[in-house]
Amino acid sequence: MKGKFDIPQLFLRLSLGLGFLLPVMDRFGWLGAAGINGNAWGNWGNFVSYTHSLMPYLSELPAKIMAIFATFGEIIFGIALLIGFKVRIAAFGSFLLTLTFALSMFIFSGPRIPFNYSVFVVSAASLLLAYIPDYKWGISNK
């Protein structure tokens, strides 16, 4: 049964990795303005405002700091998943980050929103990836 998860784990890794990096590119404005070609934010300010809407209990400065932490995490997890470096750690970090995001969306945007954007699915997929025994086609096998 060895090798049974090789192709699915690679597909999952690449999908999750790109799923983190493309929104980061959107919030930096590298993909164009908000509303163009599916871009949600189009610039950093719009992303910080959105982050604050998911954390209304925070003042503006802590919301900006959380936006920075989320972006940093998405960059690190996205790259690690794409190149296959420390996949288990990246996948578990991805799970925690997306679960936090999904729960914030559920509470502050309404229960349907995280399901409309499949955030719980991404979180569950990240957790599943963390439990796959080996990772092929990457820098490290763990």
Notes on the structure:
This is DoxX family protein. This protein has 142 residues and is mainly alpha-helical. It has one domain (6-130). The protein is built from six helices and no strands. The longest helix is centred in the middle third of the chain and has 24 residues, at 60-83. The mean pLDDT is 93.
Whole-number average pLDDT? Answer: 93
DSSP strand tally: 0
Q: Structural class, from secondary structure content?
A: mainly alpha
Share of helical residues:
55-70%
- Spell out the helices and strands N to C: HHHHHH
Distance between the termini: 18 Å
For the report, how would you describe the main beta sheet? none
Percent of sequence in beta strands: under 5%
Query: Helical segment tally?
Result: 6
Low-confidence runs of at least 5 consecutive residues: none
Rg over CA atoms: 16 Å
Shape: globular
Question: How many separate domains make up the residues?
Answer: 1
Keywords: Membrane, Transmembrane, Transmembrane helix
Pfam families: DoxX
Transmembrane segments: 65-83, 90-109, 115-132
InterPro entries: DoxX
